[in-house]
Amino acid sequence: MRNATLLDCANANPSSKKSHFVSALWTNQELLDDAARAYGKTAGGPLVKLYQRIEDSPDFIDAPEVIVASIATLPTLVLQTATIEVDDALIEQTVALVVKALKR
C-alpha cells in the first residue's frame, strides 16, 4: 500500500494528466470514458493489485472500495492542493497516516 501510494505521488504533478487520471480512477470514475475505466481495472493494473492486497490482508480494515479509495487519495490531494512547498518528508508523513487509517 505504502509503495503504491508513493508511486502515485511520485507521478502527481498538479498539471500532470497522469496525476488527474489516477485521481479520477481512485475517486471519480464518472469523469472517465469506458476505455479509460477498463484500462484502470485491468487485472495487471496497480489499483486492482492494491485493492486485492488490501482485501486479502487481515492487517487492513474491511471497508467498501470507495472508502479505501477516498482515504488513499490523500497524498495526491495534498500535492494537487497544497499552497506550501511539499517535500518528501510531508509526503512520507501523509502516506504513513493513510496506512495507519487503513490498518486494523
Please explain how this structure is put together.
With about 100 residues, this protein is mainly alpha-helical. Helix content is about 65%, strand content about 0%. The protein has helices spanning about 1-10, 15-25, 35-40, 45-55, 65-70, 75-80, 90-100. α1 packs antiparallel against α7 (about 90-100) and α6 packs antiparallel against α7. It is flat.
Distinctive features:
single chain; 104 residues; mainly alpha; 7 helices; 66% helix
Concise synopsis of the structure shown:
The chain has 104 residues and is an all-alpha fold. Helices cover 66% and strands 0% of the residues.
Number of alpha- plus pi-helical segments? 7
- Helices and strands: which structural class? mainly alpha
Strand and helix order:
HHHHHHH
Largest sheet: none
Which shape, going by the Cα principal axes?
A: flat
Beta-strand percent range: under 5%
Q: End-to-end distance, in Å?
A: 14 Å
Question: What is the overall pLDDT average?
Answer: 75
Q: Please give the radius of gyration in angstroms.
A: 13 Å
Approximately how much helix is present in the residues? Answer: 55-70%
Number of strands: 0
Low-confidence stretches: none
Write the layout of secondary structure elements.
Blueprint: H1 2-10, H2 17-27, H3 34-40, H4 46-56, H5 65-72, H6 74-81, H7 88-102
Helix pairs in contact: 1-7, 6-7
